[in-house]
Amino acid sequence: MKRIAIAATALAVVMTAAQVMAVPAGKTLEWPTSMGKVTFKGADHAGKGLKCNECHTKIFKMKKGAASMKMADINAGKYCGECHNGKKAFKPAGNCAKCHKK
Ligand code: HEC
Ligand code: HEC
Ligand code: HEC
Fold first, then answer.
1. Residue 75 and residue 8 in contact, taking contact as beta carbons nearer than 8 Å
2. Which of 66, 65, 74, 68 has the alpha carbon at shortest distance from 95?
3. Is 92 exposed, middle or buried (0-12, 13-18, 19+ CB in 10 A)?
4. How many whole angstroms from 100 Cα to the centroid of ligand 2?
5. pLDDT by residue (tens digit) across 51-95?
6. Fewest Cβ atoms nearer than 10 Å: which of 47, 50, 82, 90?
């Protein structure tokens, strides 16, 4: 019984740490491209009420650089394009500069 309680406490600590780390709030990921760097801010996403499991791990692994994304994939509705399709979030066309910063 005691052992289960300890395990449960340890799990709770791990889960709390996962909530505060990473891409959510605070962290910004960048990918250099010929169009300027793509900037992904955790705060832009966490602030819209997106939960970790809406991206991890069905769209993205929890590792920067794991996905080898091409713009054509995004335009075809993959990776960022799973949401940035003009339905869940702004679409790429006409919005290049929202993601690509000089
Ligand atoms: C809107 C999508 C999205 C949401 C929501 C999201 N992430 Fe991520 N996360 C990403 C992307 C994109 C990457 C980079 C993946 C890649 O480069 O292949 C990433 C990477 C990570 C990494 C690795 C960072 C590094 O430097 O290697 C961790 C850890 C992570 N996310 C944790 C979380 C946690 C915890 C949550 C929820 C609190 C969360 N993410 C929510 C999109 C998201
Ligand atoms: C929702 C965010 C987003 C928007 C909007 C966006 N891009 Fe991208 N773009 C990316 C990401 C992510 C990559 C891949 C970065 C990496 O992994 O190296 C990329 C890569 C690229 C590349 C590098 C070559 C390639 O084929 O992957 C070019 C060029 C590019 N985008 C052009 C554009 C143009 C032009 C627009 C506007 C019509 C645009 N992008 C809008 C996110 C975006
Ligand atoms: C699970 C859905 C989801 C995924 C996947 C996702 N986004 Fe978003 N993103 C959103 C939503 C929702 C917003 C806020 C609504 C809006 O701006 O249309 C947003 C907002 C943004 C903004 C803020 C734009 C501004 O000026 O306010 C940027 C930049 C952005 N996303 C880039 C990216 C990039 C780059 C990727 C891929 C690495 C990505 N997003 C993947 C859902 C997503």
1. no
2. 74
3. middle
4. 7
5. 889 999 999 999 889 999 999 999 999 999 999 999 999 999 999
6. 47
